[in-house]
Amino acid sequence: MAACGAEMHINPEMEVLWSEVKPSHSNMSAPPHPQPPTKGASHGAGDFSYVGIDAILEQMRRKAMKQGFELNIMIVGQSGLGKSTLMNTLFKSKVSRKSVVSTPEERIPKTIEIKSISHDIEEKGVRMKLTVIDTPGFGDHINNENCWQPIMKFINDQYEQYLQEEININRKKRIPDSRVHCCMYFIPPTGHCLRPLDVEFMSRLSKVVNIVPVIAKADTLTLEERDFFKQTIREGLRANGIDVYPQEEFDEDSDDRMINDKIREMIPFAVVGSDQEYQVNGKRLLGRKTKWGTIEVENIAHCEFAYLRDLLIRTHMQNIKDITSSIHYEVYRVRRLNETNAQPNGQPPNTLVNPQQANGVAAQHQVLTHEM
After folding, report:
1. Which residues share a beta bridge with 294?
2. For labeling, which of 30, 41, 184, 369 is most exposed (least CB within 10 Å)?
3. Which of 246, 132, 148 is nearest to 202 (CA)?
4. pLDDT beyond 80 at 237
5. pTM: predicted TM-score of the whole model, two decimal places
6. Pairing of the two strands 182-187 and 277-280
7. Residue limits of the Septin-type G domain (predicted)?
8. CA–CA separation, 10 vs 70, rounded Å?
9. Quick check: 313 and 90 in contact, CB under 8 A?
10. DSSP code, position 216
């Protein structure tokens, strides 16, 4: 253009665009590759390759933060194993039923009762409705035959209640989820092997709910006794075909399998619970004080509480809920709908035909709401 003696006039706006697309002489031999957007960088005209698909993560986060989360945990085991204390330790709050409902003297019920209490918990802007379901009376009698049946019925009642809400013509935008996501089963620290009661309960319930077995009050065992007991329990679970969480058949890929294999090697978790704080080396720690020293609850050299907490809350909470919804509840839903279709009038016996009747079943157990 200079050789022709012509002068070129560029619009100021076009000049900006030209400066953005004008290639550098040093890069003429190799066209520049698009660079991935850096965190915090402004996207738009400066990054022609950016579409914005990754923004869905922020949208999902905002929606989840607005809706909050629900987690329903059932605790099963005979009296005196520290179930309430462990739940308080897990959430560092008074979340167990006994911590909220103070009674002068709680006697062992003649039959198994199902009692639940709900809490609204918030941490760093994340809200969660936690429901702790207790089963006082389990394993506390001379004859414990079929003591798993009321618990099985309760779990199925929650599936039924959810199903009836789901098939309603005018169903709610967000169905309240009272389904049991996880059942923590407390094994007494006998140091020997699984009892017939343990085998019967886990064999039956592992088919309808995620079971996480724990050895209660593990500080009563030496390290050698603890390791031997854990190995004996794992062998008992395999011998009886009991599939506890995380179930191997539900691993989604090789990465999941590698992580879950390490967890399966640690099951059952040998735990110690305590909601008491003590001063240890200048730090305030949760623990149990003895004449020989302080057992630190969150110290993995002392017990496996930290591994249990990470599994239930920090790493696998959503997976536990997903398996409840897509596996356990789905099995129940398919079976119930097949039963419905098999009946002449399209309705099997004991079907909850409307939400009012479903709420009637839920009202059979005591539900207390406590906001923290």
Report:
1. 289
2. 30
3. 148
4. yes
5. 0.78
6. unpaired
7. 67-339
8. 61
9. yes
10. T
